User: Which sequence fits this backbone?
């Protein structure tokens, strides 16, 4: 296990390619000053697209965070999670294996591993942070990878 990543993940997420470090629970307003994301209002939610970045020792993903507009706790929009998703059978399977192998290489097997006929869910709990990797079928396969502060 990479000790530096294990210790830093409790504090936030590092974009290794540009050195930006995002502390958990920091307001998005504070991050806005750094002009490093694209904000999109999409009906019932606001999405912040961070772009393609390397995290967790070289895992390169197109990252985003979103906030439901109707939830009171999202009024101040604090940075509590970051996600990656893809849609499509082949690409979802590719990223599921890539992410699973990368995270298992860093932190070992997940604390929860659920497999059904068409869905796979793996969860890790690392120093106060949850990582979840979900592959599910909804007409086509979709993948969601989420890192969130507990």
Assistant:
């Amino acid at each position: 296990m990479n000790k530096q990543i294990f210790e830093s993940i409790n504090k936030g997420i590092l974009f290794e390619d540009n050195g930006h470090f995002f502390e958990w629970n920091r307001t998005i307003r504070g991050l806005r000053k750094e002009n490093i994301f694209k904000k999109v209002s999409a009906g019932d939610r606001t999405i912040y697209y961070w772009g393609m970045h390397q995290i967790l020792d070289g895992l390169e993903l197109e990252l985003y965070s979103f906030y439901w507009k109707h939830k009171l706790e999202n009024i101040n929009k604090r940075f509590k999670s970051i996600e990656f998703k893809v849609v499509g059978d082949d690409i979802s399977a590719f990223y599921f294996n890539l992410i699973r192998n990368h995270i298992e290489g860093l932190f070992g097997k997940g604390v929860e591993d659920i497999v059904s006929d068409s869905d796979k869910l793996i969860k890790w709990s690392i120093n106060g942070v949850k990582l979840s990797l979900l592959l599910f079928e909804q007409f086509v396969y979709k993948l969601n990878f989420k890192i969130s502060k507990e």
Observations:
- The longest helix spans residues 89-107.
